[in-house]
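Duplicate of earlier report; Fatty acid desaturase domain-containing protein input re-posted below.
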Amino acid sequence: MGPHSGEWGWSAHERYPPFNPIVPFDSHGESRSDKSAETARDYLYLTTVPVLQRAVIPNRRIHQQPVISGMFTNGPEYEGRLGKPFAPPPITLKEIYDAVPKHLLRKNLLTSTYYCVRDIGCCIILFCFASAIECIVDDYISLIVGGEVKLMKITLWVVYWWWQGLVFASFFFLGHEVQLYASVCTCGFAYAFNKLGHQGLYESQYVNDTLGFLFHSFILSPFFAWKASHNAHHRAVASIERDENYVPYERSEYNLPPRAQTSSIDYSEIFDETPVFTFLKLFAVLLTGWWMYLGANFLGSRRHPNGTNHFSPYAPIFRPHERTGIILSDIGILVMCFALCYAMAVHGFKTVMAYYFIPYMVLVQSLDRYVWKLSRCFNPSSTSIALVMVTFLQHSDPTVPHYHQEQWTWIRGAAATIDRPLLGWMGRFFLHNASHDHVAHHYFSYAPFYNLPEITKYISGVLKEHYVYDSTNTFYALYRSFTQCVFVEDEDSIAFYRDKHGNAVRQVEECLNVFVE
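Output:
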C-alpha cells in the first residue's frame, strides 16, 4: 500500500506511531490511588485537549486515531502546524539521499512506455466517446428517458469535458516528467549528481525531449521554454530573490507603512474588495492567466524586465544555448494551431470547441498557477474558489515558509513544498503523483513518477515533522491560501505569509529569531 493510503493519505500507524495511553486506572478498571498529581494533570490534559493541539509531554505517549475533517475545515496535519514555532530542517542532503533505495531511482522501460500508451489511449477512447454521444442518446437513451434527450446530451458532454481535461493534464505532467536538468544542490556543501533533473521516463534525453515536445505541443504549451523557466524554479525553490514562480509579494511592494506603524485602515485601503469584483476578477484570470504569463511574464519573477515572454528566444529567461529549443517550441505550437484551424474548416468551429477547447480550459484552470499571481494586479485577497490549481497549492500555504537569501538553502527550499491528496485517485491516475508526492519530486526530480509514493515513505522518515502534508479539502485549501497568502515581511529572513490584516499563523522559533537577526 502506498504512503498516502486512506482518505487522508496516511494510516494512523504510519503517520503517528503507536502511543501508550496514560490512564489513572488499573487493568481491572479500579482507580489507582498511587497515581501522582502530575499524572492526573496529564490525564486531564490528554482527555480534554484536541490531540493535534497538544504540546509534547516528556516520556508520555498517546495513541493517535485518524482525524476526519469536514469539507470546510483544516486538515489535522495543518492544525498540527498552526501556532507551532518553526525551525528549518536540521538535516543534510546526504541523509535524504542515503535513505532512499537506489532501485527506486531507476527507470523501467516497460512501465514508462505503459503510462505513455495508457494516456494516449485514454485520449483516443474519449474522442471516440464524444463522437458517439449523438448516436448513444438518439438510438438508446431516448428509448429509456423519453423527452429528456437534450439534458442527457448535455450531461454526456460534461462528462467528456471533465475526463478529457484530466487526460490533457496527464499530457502536461508526462511532458513535465521528461524534462532534463543539470544543477548542483547545496546545503552546507556541494553535492552534485550527474543525473539531477526530470529525465524521469527514459534514459535517453532525445527520447524524453521528443515525447515532452509532442505532449506539450498538443496542449499548446511551449515545451522547451517552459522547461527552462521550470529549471530555474527547481534550482531556487522557495527563494524570495531567485525563485521563478510563487514569489511572495513583500510589504514594501504594497507601499505599506512599517509593521509597527500599520493600522487596520492601512490594510483595508489596499486589500478590501467587493465580492462581485472578486468573482469577475477570478473568472477573467482563469480564462487568461496561463497565456498572460507565457506571453508577457505577467507578474512572473521580478528579476526579469516587463515584456519578458516564453516565445522569444532572446528573452532574459533563457540562456544562449536554449534558443534553438525556444524556436522549436514556437514551431510546435504553430503547427498545432494550424491543425486546429484546419479541423475548424473541415468540421466547424463548434465541433472543435466541444472536442478540444472546452477540455483544454479544464486543463488550464486546473494547472493555472498564475491565477494567484494575476489576481494580485487587482487585489491579492481574493476569496473566490476556482477550479483546482495544482501547482499553486504545491507551493503556497500559510504554515510553510519562504526564505530570503541569507537563510535559503536548496534543501530548505525543497522541504517548503506541500503534498496534497488532490482529486484523490484521479490525481494519482491522471496527474501522475504530481500533487500527492511533490516533496519527493523536488528532492528526486529525476526519479520516475511511479516510484515517488515509495520514495515519499522513506524521506518522510528522515524529514519527520518537517515533512509537509495537508489533507484539507482542495477547494477549501485554495480558499484559505487565497485569503491568507497575501504578503511577507521584507526584513524576515524566514518569512511566513501574512493575511490581509497583517497576521501570520506561524512564527519562527524565538531562539532562531535571535540567530537570524
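The radius of gyration is 25 Å.

Merging into the original ticket.
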